[in-house]
Amino acid sequence: MPLYIHAIASFIASFCFCFLFSVPKQNTVLSALCGSISWTVLIFFQNMGVNYIFATLAGALAVGLLADWFAVLQKTPVTCFIVIGTIPLVPGFKVYKTMLFFVTDRLEKGVSEGVQAAFIAVAISIGLIISTSATRLIRTIKKKAADKKTRK
Protein backbone atom coordinates (compact mmCIF):
# COMPACT_ATOMS: atom_id res chain seq x y z
CA MET A 1 0.00 0.00 0.00
CA PRO A 2 1.42 3.46 -0.87
CA LEU A 3 2.76 5.65 1.93
CA TYR A 4 0.25 8.44 1.31
CA ILE A 5 -2.63 6.00 1.90
CA HIS A 6 -1.10 5.14 5.28
CA ALA A 7 -0.78 8.85 6.04
CA ILE A 8 -4.41 9.60 5.16
CA ALA A 9 -5.80 6.58 7.00
CA SER A 10 -3.78 7.27 10.13
CA PHE A 11 -4.84 10.93 10.04
CA ILE A 12 -8.50 9.91 9.96
CA ALA A 13 -8.02 7.37 12.75
CA SER A 14 -6.13 9.86 14.91
CA PHE A 15 -8.75 12.51 14.19
CA CYS A 16 -11.45 10.15 15.48
CA PHE A 17 -9.45 9.48 18.64
CA CYS A 18 -9.35 13.25 19.23
CA PHE A 19 -13.10 13.14 19.86
CA LEU A 20 -12.82 10.06 22.04
CA PHE A 21 -10.25 11.79 24.27
CA SER A 22 -12.02 15.19 24.19
CA VAL A 23 -9.11 17.08 22.65
CA PRO A 24 -9.90 20.81 22.39
CA LYS A 25 -11.23 21.72 18.95
CA GLN A 26 -8.37 24.08 18.13
CA ASN A 27 -5.90 21.21 18.66
CA THR A 28 -7.66 18.37 16.81
CA VAL A 29 -6.09 18.86 13.40
CA LEU A 30 -2.56 19.19 14.75
CA SER A 31 -3.07 16.23 17.09
CA ALA A 32 -4.31 14.10 14.19
CA LEU A 33 -1.36 15.30 12.12
CA CYS A 34 0.96 14.16 14.91
CA GLY A 35 -0.59 10.69 14.81
CA SER A 36 -0.44 10.58 11.04
CA ILE A 37 3.21 11.56 10.91
CA SER A 38 4.16 9.07 13.62
CA TRP A 39 2.57 6.19 11.69
CA THR A 40 3.99 7.38 8.39
CA VAL A 41 7.49 7.55 9.88
CA LEU A 42 7.07 4.03 11.27
CA ILE A 43 5.91 2.64 7.92
CA PHE A 44 8.62 4.53 6.01
CA PHE A 45 11.40 3.10 8.17
CA GLN A 46 9.87 -0.36 8.10
CA ASN A 47 9.75 -0.22 4.29
CA MET A 48 13.43 0.76 4.34
CA GLY A 49 14.18 -2.51 6.15
CA VAL A 50 14.51 -1.16 9.68
CA ASN A 51 13.36 -3.41 12.53
CA TYR A 52 9.78 -2.69 13.68
CA ILE A 53 10.92 -1.75 17.19
CA PHE A 54 13.45 0.80 15.92
CA ALA A 55 10.89 2.11 13.43
CA THR A 56 8.53 2.61 16.37
CA LEU A 57 11.30 4.45 18.20
CA ALA A 58 11.68 6.78 15.20
CA GLY A 59 7.92 7.36 15.14
CA ALA A 60 7.92 8.18 18.85
CA LEU A 61 10.82 10.60 18.34
CA ALA A 62 8.81 12.33 15.63
CA VAL A 63 5.78 12.52 17.94
CA GLY A 64 7.79 14.04 20.76
CA LEU A 65 9.42 16.68 18.58
CA LEU A 66 6.20 17.59 16.79
CA ALA A 67 4.18 17.64 20.01
CA ASP A 68 6.58 20.10 21.63
CA TRP A 69 6.55 22.28 18.54
CA PHE A 70 2.77 22.19 18.22
CA ALA A 71 2.34 22.94 21.94
CA VAL A 72 4.43 26.08 21.56
CA LEU A 73 2.51 27.08 18.42
CA GLN A 74 -0.89 26.59 20.05
CA LYS A 75 0.20 27.72 23.55
CA THR A 76 -1.39 24.60 25.04
CA PRO A 77 -0.07 21.64 27.05
CA VAL A 78 1.83 19.04 25.09
CA THR A 79 -0.25 16.16 26.45
CA CYS A 80 -3.03 16.10 23.85
CA PHE A 81 -0.51 16.02 21.02
CA ILE A 82 1.55 13.23 22.61
CA VAL A 83 -1.44 11.05 23.51
CA ILE A 84 -3.05 11.25 20.08
CA GLY A 85 0.33 11.03 18.34
CA THR A 86 1.28 7.79 20.04
CA ILE A 87 -2.08 6.05 19.49
CA PRO A 88 -1.04 4.60 16.09
CA LEU A 89 2.18 3.26 17.61
CA VAL A 90 0.57 1.35 20.49
CA PRO A 91 0.98 -2.43 20.05
CA GLY A 92 -2.65 -3.29 20.80
CA PHE A 93 -2.91 -6.22 18.40
CA LYS A 94 0.27 -7.79 19.79
CA VAL A 95 -1.12 -7.56 23.32
CA TYR A 96 -4.38 -9.10 22.10
CA LYS A 97 -2.49 -11.96 20.45
CA THR A 98 -0.46 -12.44 23.63
CA MET A 99 -3.60 -12.89 25.69
CA LEU A 100 -5.15 -15.13 23.02
CA PHE A 101 -2.10 -17.40 23.00
CA PHE A 102 -2.09 -17.60 26.80
CA VAL A 103 -5.80 -18.44 26.93
CA THR A 104 -5.46 -21.11 24.23
CA ASP A 105 -2.50 -22.65 26.09
CA ARG A 106 0.19 -21.74 23.51
CA LEU A 107 2.57 -20.28 26.06
CA GLU A 108 5.70 -20.05 23.89
CA LYS A 109 3.95 -17.93 21.27
CA GLY A 110 2.30 -15.87 24.01
CA VAL A 111 5.61 -15.08 25.66
CA SER A 112 7.13 -14.17 22.30
CA GLU A 113 4.31 -11.78 21.40
CA GLY A 114 4.31 -10.33 24.91
CA VAL A 115 8.02 -9.61 24.82
CA GLN A 116 7.67 -7.93 21.42
CA ALA A 117 4.79 -5.80 22.72
CA ALA A 118 6.85 -4.83 25.76
CA PHE A 119 9.81 -3.85 23.57
CA ILE A 120 7.54 -1.71 21.41
CA ALA A 121 6.11 0.00 24.49
CA VAL A 122 9.63 0.66 25.78
CA ALA A 123 10.64 2.04 22.36
CA ILE A 124 7.71 4.48 22.49
CA SER A 125 8.72 5.58 25.99
CA ILE A 126 12.37 6.01 25.09
CA GLY A 127 11.52 7.95 21.93
CA LEU A 128 9.33 10.37 23.87
CA ILE A 129 11.93 10.77 26.61
CA ILE A 130 14.74 11.47 24.15
CA SER A 131 12.72 14.00 22.17
CA THR A 132 11.42 15.90 25.19
CA SER A 133 14.88 15.94 26.76
CA ALA A 134 16.39 17.23 23.53
CA THR A 135 13.84 20.03 23.21
CA ARG A 136 14.36 21.04 26.86
CA LEU A 137 18.11 21.08 26.33
CA ILE A 138 17.75 23.24 23.22
CA ARG A 139 15.43 25.65 25.06
CA THR A 140 17.87 25.90 27.95
CA ILE A 141 20.79 26.61 25.62
CA LYS A 142 18.78 29.26 23.77
CA LYS A 143 17.72 30.87 27.02
CA LYS A 144 21.30 31.01 28.31
CA ALA A 145 22.46 32.50 25.02
CA ALA A 146 19.70 35.11 25.18
CA ASP A 147 20.62 35.92 28.79
CA LYS A 148 24.27 36.43 27.78
CA LYS A 149 23.21 38.82 24.99
CA THR A 150 21.05 40.89 27.34
CA ARG A 151 23.85 41.15 29.93
CA LYS A 152 26.29 42.61 27.40
Description:
This protein has one domain (3-151). The protein is 83% helix and 0% strand. The protein has helices spanning 3-20, 28-47, 52-74, 79-86, 92-103, 107-151. The radius of gyration is 18 Å and the shape is globular. The termini are far apart.
Record keyword descriptors for this entry.
mainly alpha, 83% helix, single chain
What structural category characterises the helix and strand content? Answer: mainly alpha
What is the helical fraction, as a range of percent?
A: over 70%
Radius of gyration: 18 Å
Largest sheet: none
Average of the residue pLDDT scores: 93
Number of individual domains: 1
Number of strands: 0
Number of separate helices: 6
The fraction of residues assigned to DSSP E strands is under 5%
Runs in which pLDDT lies below 50 for 5 or more consecutive residues are none
- Sum up the overall morphology in one term: globular
Distance between the termini: 57 Å
What is the chain-wise order of helices and strands? HHHHHH
Layout: helices, strands, pairs:
Elements: H1 3-20, H2 28-47, H3 52-74, H4 79-86, H5 92-103, H6 107-151
Helix pairs in contact: 1-2, 2-3, 2-4, 3-4, 3-6, 5-6
